[in-house]
Amino acid sequence: YPTWKRTLTRRAREAQMKRFCKAQAIQRRLEEIEVTFRELEQQGIKLEKLLRDEDGSPADQKTQWMNQLLYLVQKKNSLMSEESDLMIAVQELKLEEQQWQLDQKLRCYMNKEESLKTPEDRAAEQEILVQLLDVVNKRNVLIHIQEEKRLSEL
């Protein structure tokens, strides 16, 4: 078993493990965001009730509650933006994994001697190339979406 094949296999496993760890971290953060959403929702409900029920409260108190409510809305919007970014990252990880699998299949066909390839092998190789191109285009779209989002936030 040549050294370069072992190196490629090891690097592929490392890249796959890295994607897996990143996916786990994203999943944990999405769960944290969901919990925070619920907490913000509860706080918002309390503040709205206070604002509606307290007609005799001083104006300073109402202003303070209103500011707190606006802060909660701002925080929720920030979390929604982060959640959107994480969902894009999840899509990107899925596409990376898909691209890696297609690369592996393509290598099998490309390593085969050209004279030994059947017409089915050539057709399968072409199909894999088409699928690979599709995955690369999808990743490119995600990158454009991220860039547009980043520019709009500036």
Automatic annotation (TrEMBL):
Residues 23-50 form a coiled coil. The lineage of its organism: Eukaryota, Metazoa, Chordata, Craniata, Vertebrata. This is MICA1 monooxygenase. Keywords: Coiled coil, Membrane, Monooxygenase, Oxidoreductase. It is found in: Membrane. It comes from the Eukaryota. Residues 13-154 form the BMERB domain. The keyword Metal-binding does not apply. GO terms for molecular function: monooxygenase activity. The keyword Ribonucleoprotein does not apply.
